[in-house]
Amino acid sequence: MTQPLHWLVPAPPKAAEIFAVYQATHEFYREAQYREALEEYYEWYEQTAAAHRREAEKMRRDVNIFGWFTRRDR
Fold first, then answer.
1. Do residues 38 and 31 lie in contact, with contact meaning Cβ atoms separated by under 8 Å?
2. What dihedral do alpha carbons 27, 30, 32, 38 form, nearest 10°?
3. Buried b (16+ CB within 10 A) or exposed e, 12-22
């Protein structure tokens, strides 16, 4: 057998291919982290807004003490 058996042993990947795979993987995980952080922010914002709406409704039902001094009935 004088011919090399190059078809049995695959050639190692080129550095550019390895870097491209690494970069794509890194970008994917960074995008996943960004979306997770954004989703957490949306949940926090919704909870905070709901708490503010409840507090505003409670304040509307309170007695208007300032109105006593300005002679307004609200």
1. no
2. -140
3. eeeeeeeeeee
Instruction: Decide: helix, strand or coil at residue 6.
Output: coil
Q: Assess whether pLDDT exceeds 80 at residue 59.
A: yes
> pTM higher than 0.70 for the full model?
no
Asked if 67 contacts 73 with a C-beta cutoff of 8 angstroms, the reply is: yes
Write out the two tokens for 55.
């507090």
Distances (CA, A) of 20 to 15, 25, 29: 9, 9, 14
Asked if 72 and 64 count as a contact pair (C-beta separation under 8 A), the reply is yes
Q: In the predicted model, what is the mean pLDDT of the chain?
A: 85
Place of tokens 């550095």: 15
Output the six-digit token pair for 56: 């505003």
Q: What is the structure's pLDDT at 53? A: 97
